[in-house]
Amino acid sequence: MQADYVIVGGGSAGATLAARLSEDPNTSVCLLEAGGAGKSIFVRAPAGAVVMLPGWGRINNWAYKTVPQKGLNGRQGYQPRGRALGGSSAINAMLYVRGHQADYDHWADLGCDGWDWDGVLPYFKRSEGNERGADDVHGGDGPLQVSDQRNPRPMTRAFVEAAKQLQIRERDDFNTGDNEGVGLYQVTQFHDAARRGERCSAAAAYLHPVMGQRPNLTVPTHARATRILFDGKRASGVAFRQGRRVRQVTARREVIMCGGAFNSPQLLQLSGVGAAEDLRAQGIEVVHDLPGVGRNLQDHLDFTMAWKSKDTDNFGIGLTGGLNLIRHARRWRRDGGGMIATPFAEGAAFVKTALGLDLPDVQLHFVISIVDDHARRLHPGYGFSVHVCALRPHSRGVVGLESADPLAAPMIDPAYLSDPRDLQTMIAGAKLTREIVMQEPMARYRHRELWGTRDGLSDADWARLIRARADTIYHPVGTCKMGVDDMAVVDPALRVRGLEGLRVVDASVMPTLIGGNTNAPTIMIAEKAADLIRGAG
Description:
Layout: E1 2-8, H1 12-21, E2 29-32, H2 41-44, H3 49-52, E3 64-69, E4 75-79, H4 101-109, H5 117-127, E5 128-130, E6 144-146, H6 154-165, E7 181-184, H7 202-207, E8 217-218, E9 223-231, E10 234-242, E11 245-257, H8 260-270, E12 273-274, H9 276-281, E13 288-289, E14 301-308, H10 319-335, E15 345-351, E16 362-367, E17 383-390, E18 398-401, E19 410-413, H11 420-437, E20 448-449, H12 459-469, E21 471-472, E22 502-504, H13 519-534
Parallel strand pairs: 1-2, 1-11, 2-8, 5-6, 11-22, 12-13
Antiparallel strand pairs: 3-4, 7-15, 9-10, 10-11, 14-17, 14-20, 14-21, 15-16, 16-17, 18-19
């Protein structure tokens, strides 16, 4: 088997890139995906995320774990990542967030020419089919359908009003380049009549419509890449396992890694590309000594606060909730509305925790259910959660190899709170979050505070709670960073430095974590990469 381009990983980046490159009928593309097709009801129904996210049965989910985290009292963190066409866009909360324009201008300041806000905005617009239509900053006819929420719950609107009581401005659009304020998220959800209310994953947007329609596009699923093949310093193909068969596919032009912040550096290292001393320690022959592979891991650490509520118009466990769910399921099948269409995280706030800050340093997600340990611990009754994360963490971690076994999980060490500045930001964000919830508009919804938050906590008390409960909110990046310094893995054209015929196109190339959710930026990266590969950008 051979193709011009062999893409490893059919997630948000891989699905986008495969669809774009195969638009040229004279260019052949083979996309290898370790999971399935990403078309099940759990994927299509937004509320199905609660089935996939916890990782029980690993439904469309790699369900990775971190090494014990010193900053989190030695606890192992949980790292769900999508394992299906669409990748994590098949299991996420569908939140369409680009980050702040300063994030991208900072990339350009680091030497990543062409990746400033003005350089990436056309690719955000190209990807986007926004329900509100096209304007100076939005696209109206791109593959990725972006919608207003179908039926946000009243408690979410009360959260917005509560934040406004503290002079936090209401914002109708978080994606203009300036995201400071409070409001409702837009979501990657179909708004056309045929599929209204369904999840619009990257695969549903880009890949599913053309699979089987383009003879130049091959998409083997349940195909686990085990090694990049090299001819000297040139990537020549990929070895993979499909069922019990061990197979190879040859790349006439390039091999393109789209495995994400964990799987891309892992496969590079398994293939002999990485820090030479680390590879030799695992008995792996060194093809290319590239010390930055797997370094620079950044992630948004999340601290969840929750309240019990007497209001039952939300997701909860009880007779009323069960009857409501049946009613809402019928509505969703009828017109795409109701709570089955919810992203759960309906309310958003990007806020500054101190005067004099140039940018929001904390993001809040208001969730219409009690979320404990990634929905792996369930609580009877009803309530809501507010999640707080520090947007630009200073802590840096690493992704390495547990062993030379290509079927083993990667070693993941985010090194959460290893930089004390991150803890201080988290404490300030948690205090502000509680202040918002205690405002009058939330009075009818908050009944009982959970997990130890209360009046009169000292900073030491907050630190203790954060270390005991915080974990990821699913935005790992940076492990194959783009740049021009000695620790950069790829150049600004996303070519692996020192090798030929090999690129990385996914969230791992971000040199720094953007101030928001990472799915829309990952799709943007793939859109821009398509032009770079075709020589148009």
